[in-house]
Amino acid sequence: MDATLAALLGGLVGLAIGGVAAFSFRFSERAQARAPERPDPPIPPDVAKVLAVLRSAAVVVGPQDDVRHASAPARSFGLVRGTRIVTGELLDLVRKVRRDGEIRQCDMEIPRGRFGHNVLSVSARVAPVGSELILILVEDHTKERRIDSIRRDFVANVSHELKTPIGALTLLAEAVQHAADDPDAVHRFAGRMQIESDRLTRLVQQIIELSRVQADDPVEEAAAIALDDVVDAALDRCRVDAQAKHIELVHAGVRDLHVSGSMQQLVIAVGNLVENAVGYSPEHSRVVVDVRHSAPDDHDPEGSAGFVELAVSDQGVGIPQQELDRVFERFYRVDRARSRATGGTGLGLSIVKHVAASHGGAIAVWSVEGEGSTFTIRLPLRGDTATSGDSGMTGTLLPAQAAQPEPQSESPPKPQSEATDVRQKEATR
Predict the structure, then answer these.
(1) DSSP labels for 103-159?
(2) N or C: where does the chain have the smaller number of CB atoms within 10 Å of the terminal CB?
């Protein structure tokens, strides 16, 4: 009896052990049969090294269109958001490359900003890397294409502007031939030919001046330039036109200030501003050239002598508010009919902007329709004259009529106060 019970218990224990062993064996087989989850393939080390030194925006895309790597420029361009490519055209290009393995390249425009007002012109190149990854390289060509557009517009505008006086000279020459027996007509046509010839000469000269300064490179062999001489020379250029319209020219503000640069370029820049002020001002008005010394602030380099602000103010027709951002564009004229009457070419303010930039400065404009305009050139002051000019406050009146000279020793308060009023308006605006 005892032997039978022992054998039965031993059998039950053996059966339990066998069941556990069989269950463990089956569980192990299932675990081995289940495919292990593989981590996403990392970026190959060589690719990572190359991406670290590239200037192009770089994106590495996985097999599920998931972004594995995106450089800072790629995110700043708005190509990637989170782990997804947000540019549909670029995503389609990635899928085509994944399908056939061929390298593709295309140019595209990518809207930027919340409302997509700004557009980036980019060139994208997409290529496979290994068996699963896709590499995207994007280069920003916005600046180059904008320059190409400006160059094309410049050539077209130059051609148009040259065509007008040349066509007029051709017609006038034919008119002179047909009016050979009429001395009065010949004299009248010859006068018109002289006007068109002067217009053509002025246009060609301004194109040459613009080509010299448009790169905004620093002035080579910069010399110490006395601003008093610059202002006087600029006013002399416009004295005849001012006398014809009975316009007073005023040299006001601080004297004995010096800057580093080119005397010729500065005279051209200030002369263009004074010429515009005279041309767009009514008769019996006043044009003020006001010079001020601006002390350096916290943002200026240590040891800076500050800046000189040279403001040309008029009492003319003014400029519409919506046109102020465009007045420095080449060949842009607010009133083309008036510019044609005054002989304007649309290049004067563009030359002023480039001259200011090449001297390390800038230009700003303040204007109200019906009240007048103020154009202010801001230039770095030469250090050795920062304090010598502070005591030279004067206001010299250049009379419209040479027959009515004013003594240079007198400083009329009205031009000085008008210059200050205009500057205060500009500051509070």
Answers:
(1) -EEEEEEEEESSS--EEEEEEEEEEEETTTEEEEEEEE-HHHHHHHHHHHHHHHHHH
(2) N
